[in-house]
Design a protein that fits this description.
With 249 residues, the protein is mainly alpha-helical. The chain starts with a helix and ends in a 6-residue tail after the last helix.
Length: 249
Amino acid sequence: MESKLKYYLQVADNALILSHRLGEYSSHGPFLEEDLANTNVALDLIGIAESILDETGRQEGLGRTGDDLAYRRNETEFLNCLLVEQPNTDFAFVMVRQFFTDAFHFYFFSELTKSNDAFLSAVGYKSLKEVTYHLRRSSEWMIRLGDGTPEANAKTTHAIQTLWKFSHEFFIENAIDLEMKNAGIGVDLKVVESNWMQKIREIFYMSKLSIPENNYQYSGGKNGVHTENLGYILAEMQYLPSKYPDAVW
């Protein structure tokens, strides 16, 4: 598959896998309105993923649809970052993972609007409307949890310490990222990272939360090397198409 289509998949797979994780958390929110908000974010993300996967299949020219790319790829063919496949654990984990990803998405899609690829630029403009709301919501929750009860602060701190080591893979440039940046198709992840860190510091300051001192980072997801968590996700997500390959709906 050519580099540009792999770049498409990197963007789509982050949204697709995170949408599934949020879908798993449906009915587990702290109250009804928040449960609905969480589900709406999942729907926004799967909408982003669907549009990119459909276009990837079209440009690929092999007869594969967006559904084929979502439900008939194996684990090593998924190019999402490791953060989005991490388990829900509890509401603090859900919101910390969401905040890290929302901040990345906001600045990533902002830069993507400048792409000389007409499709990706359009994705950037359209997605910004949704991820702006996502970031505002998760930022508010970080402040509410961090500056809330001692128990809420402790759980949020634990989630940050656990998930921080996955958060910087968004900004590690692989060969595809470099090629697309140099071609004017992809974004400069160093610019995205700088803006992301500024937002993290701002919200953590307001939340009475601290950035972990340990800067060790896990990576590999963008190159198809994943944690065991993705295998469990795909076993559930792809069960119906695998069991009934001729099913239509």
